[in-house]
Amino acid sequence: MALDSPIITLITGCSSGIGFELLKLFNKEPYRIVATALPESAEKLANDPVAQSDRIWIRKLDVSDFEKATTIVEETNSKWGPIDLLINNAGISYRSVIEDMTPEDEQKQIAVNYLGPMHLIRQCLPDMRRRKNGRIINVSSVGGMMAMPTMASYSASKFALEGATESLWYEMRPWNIKVTLVRPGFINSIAFQKVLYSSKRKSGASSSSYDSHYHCMTKFVEKLMTKSSSTSASVARRIFKTARMERPPLRVAGTRDAWFFYFIRRLLPRALYHKLLYISLPGRKEWGKKK
Ligand SMILES: NC(=O)c1ccc[n+]([C@@H]2O[C@H](COP(=O)([O-])OP(=O)(O)OC[C@H]3O[C@@H](n4cnc5c(N)ncnc54)[C@H](OP(=O)(O)O)[C@@H]3O)[C@@H](O)[C@H]2O)c1
Questions:
Q1: Which domain does 53 fall in, by range?
Q2: Does the C-beta of 144 come closer than 6 Å to ligand 1?
Q3: What is the pLDDT of residues 19-28, one digit of tens each?
Q4: pLDDT per residue over 9-22, tens digit each?
Q5: 286 within domain boundaries
Q6: N or C: which end of the chain has fewer CB atoms below 10 A?
Q7: Does any domain span residue 48?
């Protein structure tokens, strides 16, 4: 990318959290940003002072709506030209034990965190390959390398994103397309208030045997998030820095704890790691006591 020509950047999930912070960072030369937001959040974003810029173009997009995603890439091509930088940031997180997930819940989790990003990547690749230039940054999670109870489906979606991104890194080498995963760990944000519960749990059809799993994990995750020194803004800065690196690595830790978890996961023997993680889960002694 020549520095004097605009860098056309598509970022998903810009209405809050990391996406919103990215919008502030990229709102400068040479970037032109297609900022997507869910249809129900787009108006609020459009009225925000941060979005009042000729460099920002807000489009309504649910990333699981593949047709709409294709249209937005085509519209961007007509307005500004092909996309140089794609940041798949939008994501959702179910808090649910496996037994409580319905096929519809599973599909929603996978569609937003994995299938949607894959579809957008496919829309951008032909132009990136033709021009032998481009960058793709997928926002993963520490949950994409270590799974925890009540987060199976979320982890599955991020493990899938990680696996596919790793393949893409190899596939894109001949075309100079830079592919990176940014992995945030726990972030001091209100994202935990946005976790989704399965329809079975919400309707009261879930077995009460799992109450202590939900109770302990909710408290545990909320505590780690509120005590974290990382914020949506600090993760966004890491992503921004990655987007400007000449040779970005395949994996970037988005927070300090992500480094820590990465080394624990790599260095400890598997059996020991699983045992240690299990015994460190607060309240797990209550699990399985209720029939
Ligand atoms: N927060 C954390 O602790 C944490 C840790 C590790 C990884 N991450 C990852 O970081 C990314 C950003 O999360 P965040 O922390 O900034 O949380 P967030 O504030 O909840 O932001 C997620 C964004 O995605 C949007 N979104 C949700 N469903 C969507 C859909 N179907 N189509 C398009 N957009 C959709 C949300 O829109 P609305 O605001 O309208 O709902 C929101 O703008 C996610 O991929 C997440 O998995 C977060």
A1: 7-207+230-265
A2: no
A3: 999 999 999 9
A4: 999 999 999 999 99
A5: no
A6: C
A7: yes
Residue with tokens 């991104």: 165
Single-letter code of the amino acid located at 129: R
- CB of 186 within 8 A of CB of 258? no
- Give the predicted TM-score (pTM) of the model: 0.97
Active site (catalytic) residues: 154
Query: What's the total number of domains in the chain?
Result: 1
For residue 17 and ligand 1, the question of a CB distance below 6 A is answered with yes
Residue located via tokens 């299938």: 115
CATH of the domain at 21: 3.40.50.720
d(CA 287, CA 177): 47
Is the CB of 51 inside a 6 Å radius of any atom of ligand 1? no
* Pocket residue to mutate for ligand 1, from 10, 12, 18, most atoms within 8 A of Cβ: 18
**Ligand 1 pocket check for 69: Cβ under 6 Å:** no
Pairwise pLDDT comparison (193 vs 56), residue with the higher score: 56
Instruction: Return the ∠ at Cα 239 (arms to 235 and 243), rounded to 5°.
Output: 170
Within a domain: 217? no
User: Atom 46, ligand 1: which residue's CA is nearest?
Assistant: 91
